[in-house]
Amino acid sequence: MQEGVHLELNPLGTRGLLGMPAAELGGRVVDLRDLGPPRLATLPERLAATTGWSRRFAVLDDVLRAELTEAGPPVPEVTAAWRRLLATGGTARTSALADQVGWSRRHLGERFRRELGLTPKQAARVIRFERACALLWREATLPLAELAVACGYYDQAHLTNEWRALAGCSPGTWLAEELPFLQAEPGAPARDCAHD
Asked: Whole-structure pTM over 0.85, yes or no?
């Protein structure tokens, strides 16, 4: 039997927790021992040696709180753009984000990518996809055309093409292959994959 803890870290929190921008970790698998802080390096062993999930989560909370650094979040403009993307489900245009924060599109794109590892347009694409995943998981019988409209795609073909590009399969195949392995019951409330 295997047990594990899956922790999703908000890209804005990476700098505060690890002292580096999320972009430095993008596309890599990094062992906690390679990140530097000794508390993080020994975290897997501590969790494995702790009995009971409430105690394990308490250990996790204690270690993460202790590792918070003075680095803080990215500059306010990047933070505002990220939060706006999340609030709109990835439908905000880069030009609107740039106008909101008072930067040019190019400057926002560079600063956003340097901090989070993706441009605002790429991040929006992922947020829309994750939103579509969560919605399809909750409502597996939702027609794909309705799913496309609800998640900001132009049409069903756009949704399907994006799904193939990001998941490597069609939405129907994803449902057939992934849904049985999710731990919660289908139809139960699920949190969105992209959260603040």
From this structure: no
